[in-house]
């Protein structure tokens, strides 16, 4: 009986130690507060999410990367548990503020879609703060060659939300859009995505004026100045616009490589997490050229 009690007590203590590994908080950055989570040891890796999503987008990456790196994920201003956006802002400046707050001098930056745009803009403006970049299914301010389908999709959701708010109908339209479609994900991931969309307040669709503003020159114009080794990832089934962006990144960034993730859509890290994790970890662990 005593052995059983001791084993049970050890299990409780071990669970407590494990729980203490994750640090969470609100970082005071400029005139806002950013929610963040941090775990692990080693080179820092910062994960940055897509529009309308939050830190939970990286659930399938979190433990896998925490075994190799110090992992940080945060909610961009206006999303998740961070303060809501009131005015246009530059999210790459918020990222700098977060790294300063956490006393992190240099980090790998992994971003998807909007997060990829933030990563690239940050790398261009603060090259000394970046180890490597992974830009997955990235958007790109300054880029205009988006397809009519993508323009119509985004235009429709903005029209619906700005006139009717962000309710079940609008959330369903966004979940069914090419940007949110999951091709290979399991049920748990599908539920996770639905919960993020339902928890999002819709501010950026209701009032696009508060969208992230990267300033001038645009990130597109700055790509040739990105010196960090860069991995461009794109889902095979992602909307054509993002393949165009990926190809442009390969042409403009000096030290770059590209991989296509078979069977994945726009949210490639959620659709094919094992492939995404393998490609990204291998890249981050390679010796810098």
Note down, in words, how this protein is organized.
The chain is an alpha/beta fold and 289 residues long. It has a domain at 22-143 and 212-285: Rossmann fold (3-Layer(aba) Sandwich). Helices cover 44% and strands 17% of the residues. The protein has an eight-stranded mixed β-sheet with strand order 1-2-4-3-5-6-7-8, sandwiched between helices. The radius of gyration is 19 Å and the shape is globular. One of its GO terms (molecular function) is hydrolase activity. Keywords: Hydrolase, Signal. It comes from Runella slithyformis (strain ATCC 29530 / DSM 19594 / LMG 11500 / NCIMB 11436 / LSU 4). Residues 44-273 form the AB hydrolase-1 domain.
Question: What is the gist of this entry?
Answer:
This protein is of the alpha/beta class and 289 residues long. The protein has helices at residues 2-20, 59-66, 91-101, 114-125, 148-164, 168-175, 187-199, 203-206, 219-222, 240-252, 268-271, 273-285; strands spanning 23-29, 32-39, 44-48, 70-74, 107-112, 130-136, 230-235, 256-261.
């Amino acid at each position: 009986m005593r052995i059983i009690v001791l084993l049970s007590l050890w299990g409780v203590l071990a669970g407590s130690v494990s729980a203490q590994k994750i640090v969470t908080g609100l970082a005071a950055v400029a005139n806002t507060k950013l929610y963040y989570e941090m775990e692990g040891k080693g080179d820092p890796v910062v994960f940055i999410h897509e529009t309308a999503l939050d830190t939970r987008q990286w659930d399938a990456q979190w433990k896998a990367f925490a075994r190799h790196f110090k992992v940080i994920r945060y909610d961009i201003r206006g999303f998740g548990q961070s303060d809501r956006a009131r005015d246009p802002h530059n999210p790459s400046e918020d990222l700098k503020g977060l790294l300063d707050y956490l006393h992190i001098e240099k980090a790998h930056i992994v971003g998807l879609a909007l997060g990829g745009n933030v990563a690239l803009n940050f790398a261009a403006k603060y090259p000394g703060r970046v180890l490597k970049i992974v830009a997955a299914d990235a958007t790109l301010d300054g880029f205009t060659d988006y397809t009519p389908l993508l323009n119509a999709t985004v235009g429709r959701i903005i029209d619906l939300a700005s006139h009717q708010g962000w309710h079940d109908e609008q959330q369903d339209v966004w979940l069914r859009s090419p940007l949110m479609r999951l091709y290979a994900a399991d049920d748990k991931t599908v539920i996770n995505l639905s919960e993020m969309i339902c928890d999002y307040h819709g501010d950026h669709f209701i009032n696009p004026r508060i969208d992230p503003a990267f300033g001038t020159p645009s990130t597109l114009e700055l790509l040739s100045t990105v010196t960090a080794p860069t991995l461009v990832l794109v889902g095979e089934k992602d909307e054509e616009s993002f393949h165009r962006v990926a190809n442009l990144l390969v042409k403009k960034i000096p030290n770059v490589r590209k991989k296509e993730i078979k069977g994945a859509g726009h949210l490639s890290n959620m659709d094919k997490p094992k492939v995404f994790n393998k490609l990204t970890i291998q890249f981050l662990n390679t010796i810098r050229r």
